[in-house]
Amino acid sequence: MENLIYVLFLCIVAPMILLVLLTKKKSKLITGYMVAGITCALFVSELNSIILSYFDNDGFFVSTTITPITEEIIKALPVLFFAYMFYDNLEILLPLSFSTGIGFALFENMVLLLKMNTDMPIELAAVRGLATALMHGVCTAAVGLGMSYVKKKKELFYCGTLGLLIIAILYHGLYNMLVQSSLSVLGFILPVITYIPLLLRQYNYIKTKRNKEVEHNSQ
Amino acid sequence: MNIYMISNTFIWICSLVSFIVGAIMFFKPSKPLFAKMITMAVGCIAFGRIFQVLRIAIAPDTMSGFQLGFLGVIGSLVFLFAVNYCIIDKAVDDHSPKNQKYRFIPIVFPILATAFYMIFIGFADVNLIVKICGAVLTLFVVQSIYFNAKHIFFPDLETGVLGALKPYNILALIYAYLCLAEIIALSGDYYILDLALSFVMGIVIILLIPAVAKGVKKWKT
Fold first, then answer.
1. Residue spans per domain, chain A
2. Distance from the CA of B139 to the CA of which of A28, A173, B76, B132 falls in 20 to 30 A?
3. Residue B87 pLDDT exceeds 60
């Protein structure tokens, strides 16, 4: 039973790696970074259990104060690696960091499901699946935004990434605290509220790009 | 509702209003990066304060020890430092020897902040977590106020940007000192003083965005 988390990890990651090998360029990167997110979640789940035992199993304190810090830092590492080694283009970094967050949330939810056995109602699973995925995705995407300066402006990269990482940590801590309280509905709504402007921005960006292309072709 | 919660709620409301105004005004592709970053600093304050307010409301028994809301203050100082060091300073300081005195005079402000920390927290009889948090905060306050003070005194005859941003720099300097004063007040359990400080801090945060807007008119890059 102790190895179940690793069994689960292998069952998810193995087919995804096969998918990575078959897909091309951008799809390969996004799927690959989803695998990276899942791997980060596996590492964090082990780390969190060590931290939890250090704080006398005070789940509420650890999940609202310590784990937002560790999780956000670990999730940011694969994105930092990509930005530093390959491209620091925001157009690539944002979807990449978002998929890392989604991968992380995917595995985190699975681990939670394992711990709760069969006691999780389907409504809660649906709401949690959506809200947690959005929360992790938005947080990592915010950090990815700061990392887009890694090669262009070094000083701005250090300060900007630290500032955005702090915002992501606070947002994560706020979400964890709300979902564990009587205001859990507010906690589940919070990621949706923050996702809408991101979606609108992406929609506007695609629309502007398409208009420019049409304009360019007509000339 | 305790006094600490009232002071945090007041700062949260002020910073939320300021953040919304800033986001509407500056979160556009045509607006300069420094204005966006100052708005993010205000957003950081709002996030940190709402965390503290909800923490007191939901789990008041976990209020001792390190609080994640403290990172909101640190984050705001990081953004304010980034604006002054990475953007404004690069544009106005040509590192010529004739302006050397303007680089030395502002050192007084960080020294003053460090002295405050040493007297009221460093050598005082307070618990270790407060001492560590105070030291971290002082570190970020020191680097932020040096550049704020530098840009208040530094001559800017060519672009006129520093003149337009002077109200912002004065407000950012006051904000950084208020952050330090707040932790000093809390370390000694002076909650009434904390309430008074939070009232001033709320007003400073509200005034920050209009002060930045004045600078944006002058400097659009």
1. 4-214
2. A173
3. yes
